[in-house]
Write a structure and sequence with these properties.
By secondary structure, the chain is mainly β. The chain contains no helices and 6 strands. The chain has strands at 3-15, 22-27, 30-44, 54-62, 67-73, 78-85. Strands 1-2-3-4-5-6 form a 6-stranded antiparallel beta barrel. Strand 2 and strand 3 form a beta hairpin. It is globular.
């Protein structure tokens, strides 16, 4: 992404299956319908660093043409907005 957020932003996601594709997400009360979902790309933290654990990353495009980078933390099954292409 051309813009990474300082901190991951918690979002709620609707996906067709646990591993994607992502259909929509809600961020700060705004519902975004996804028209294209690419992923998952699994990234795991080294075993000696347990700070983030394993995450599945998706590149998603919304109806208005914007692209976002979102991820799902496998340990907690929580979703986060990580960045955007601007």
């Amino acid at each position: 992404p051309t813009h990474l957020f300082d901190r991951p932003v918690v979002i709620s996601v609707v996906a067709l299956a646990p591993d994607g594709p992502v259909c929509s997400f809600t961020h700060k009360g705004d519902h975004c319908t996804v028209t294209c979902s690419i992923g998952p790309e699994r990234i795991a933290t080294e075993r000696w660093r347990a700070s983030f654990g394993t995450r599945d990353y998706f590149k998603v495009q919304t109806e208005d043409g914007r692209w976002f980078w979102i991820c799902r933390a496998l340990g907690s099954n929580r979703w986060f907005l990580r960045g955007a292409w601007v």
